[in-house]
Amino acid sequence: MPNDPNTQGNVSLIAGQVDDVFLFITLMGLIFFVITQGFLIYFAVKYRRKKREEPGETPYITGNHWLEAIWIVIPSLVVLAIFIYGYVVYRDIRTPPPDAVEIQVTARQWLFQFTYPDGRSTVNEVRVEVGKPVKFLMTSTDVIHGFYLPDFRVKKDILPGSYTFLWVQPEKVGRYDVFCTEYCGTGHSVMRAALIVLSHEDYEQWSKQEKKPETLPLAKQGEELVEQSGCLACHSLDGSAKIGPTLKGLFGRTVSLADGKTVVANEDYLRESLLDPGAKIVKDVPPVMPTFQGVLKD
Predict the structure, then answer these.
(1) Who's near 220: CB < 8 A, 6+ residues apart?
(2) Which helix (H) or strand (E) holds 194?
(3) pTM beyond cutoff 0.85
(4) Which pLDDT tens digit goes with each residue over 115-149?
(5) Which of 70, 89, 92, 96 suits a disulfide with 167, CB 3.0-4.6 Å?
């Protein structure tokens, strides 16, 4: 659910259309349930056998052509209406506007990388402008992932070696969850991102902002970078156990490797672990870390 309470309800046109389709199907099912069960109860009561009543001869009924035509034609028309209504909404979901802003999504174990048209790149967080259509062009570098925006009622699998897409046009400012809906490994449950919908003014300001001056201490800059890059999905800062080794007290420590060797966690080791995670596998840790080659700058 979005964190902003002002974003409750339909956050896009498509979300409202999808909800209306499900509501229409539910109402049709409810109406026919009431009719059929109502007649069932009525006939069961009306023609029940009374006490001490001798069973009579079963009447010979040959059928009623009008009644048979009605219960064939009306349900058929309802099913056809559901199909047409659903197809129209599905067509809208699969047809992005020609002026949609295209954002590339690269999924990997276990993060989403977003690349904007101007070349800037973010991890596990994407910002879009309210009222503007956005097309997400998606691919995977390893296994099948999913891109699911529950508040927008849209979902699409992300496949390695090919491209898939979905589009949204957000109508309300807020922060919305993005989930991976395909089991993609041990870090699947923590593979999530955020879609941040900004007002026109805020989006323009964010688009034009320059890189902030590096005035923070290096340790604080590193902490922010770790949070923004999705590292905390597999590593902890407080020593708690996760998929990967904790980062607490890592620098300068002697690390035991899976091949029985040891290595000091210095600058070279950390850089190599980010760019080529399979070069030195830590003991008792699964070799599942993705490369950050091309994701992080020097």
Answers:
(1) none
(2) strand 192-198
(3) no
(4) 888 878 888 889 999 989 999 999 998 899 999 99
(5) 96
